[in-house]
Amino acid sequence: MPKRTYRSRTRSRVVVPIILSVTMTAAVSPAVTAAPAHQQGAFESIASPKERVNRAIVLGFYTALNRGNFGHLDNVVRPDLIQHYPAIADGRAAFRAYHAGLRNQNPDLRYTVKRTIAQNDLVVTHSHFVGKAGDAGVAKINLFRLDKGKIAEHWEVNEAVRPPGTGNDMFSTLSSPRISKSLPFATDAESEHVARAAFVEIVNQPDDELRLQALDRYIGDNPYYQHFPNVPNGSGALQQFIHDAFAAQPDYRANVKTVVAEGDLVAVFVHLENLFDMKNGVGADLYRVRDGKLLEHWVVIEPTPPTSANPNTMY
C-alpha cells in the first residue's frame, strides 16, 4: 500500500459533553476534540463531516454482521472490493460469503467495537469478536478504505485473546480520561510523528543505549499502559522485550506501512520480519499520544500464512 500523508485537523466549535464510558453502536457519536483551554467536561468535534460519515458506515457494517443482515453489505461494500485478508478472495461476493459462513458456524457471534480511528478515507476499528458464549474470543484490528460512501479496500489482523498474565487485558482504556474515543490532546500530525519516531528510534533500534535514550524521549515518566499480554507496563518492560527480540533474531524488523491518526489515537500497520520464531507477519499497533509521548499501547499480531485467497499483501 502506498505511503499516505494526511493533513492536521482544523478544530470545530461544536461542543459535546464528555462521556466516561463508551459502547460503540452504529449510531455512534462523532469523535471529539477539546474545548478552549481543555475545559473539563467538554470537548469539540475533531472529525470532518466526511470522516463522521465513513465511521458511521463502518460501524453500520458491524451492526449488520451482528444481526446477520448480509444484504446490507451490498449497500456499503463495492463489488470490486480489494481484499488483503488471506482467507478471503477479492470482491464483495467473497466478503459476504465469508461472513455468512462464519455466522453459520457461530449463530450467536458478536463483534464489539472498542475504539475507532477515522482519517480522510480510512477507518480503523479495534474490536472483540466472540463466536460462542464463554469463549475468550479474538482481538481484531481492521482497516477500511472508503470511496464515495462504500468500503473499497480491507485489511485485517487477528489474534486470539490471551489472559493478561503480567500485563493488562487486550481492550480496556487505562489512561485518563478512561474514554475509548480519540481525544483532542494531540493533533493528527503530532500523533503520527510520535508513532513513526517510536518505530524508528525504539522498535527498530538494535542498540540498547540508543533505545533507552529514545524511550526517555517518547515515554519518559509516563506509566505506558501496556495491553500486549505478558508484557508489563512501563518503558523498562518494552526495553527488555525489544532487546530480547534482537537477541533472538538480529535481523528482526518492523516495517511501517500505513499510519492513521485521529487526535490522540494513532494506528500503525507494520510488516514484521523475524520476530522471535515468526518469519513473516503483520502487526497493528494502536497508541494514545499525550504531550508528545506514548501513554498507552494496544497491539494485534498475526503470522502471514503460506497461501492466500487473494493476490494482495496483508499490509
Automatic annotation (TrEMBL):
Q: Does the keyword Membrane apply?
A: no
Where do the SnoaL-like domain residues begin and end?
A: 59-154, 211-297
- Give the residues annotated as coiled coil: none
A Pfam family reported for this protein in Swiss-Prot or TrEMBL: SnoaL_2
- Please give a single GO biological process term from the UniProt record: polyketide metabolic process
**This protein's record includes keyword Signal:** yes
Recite the UniProt keywords alphabetically.
Signal
- Signal peptide limits: 1-34
Protein name per Swiss-Prot or TrEMBL: Predicted SnoaL-like aldol condensation-catalyzing enzyme
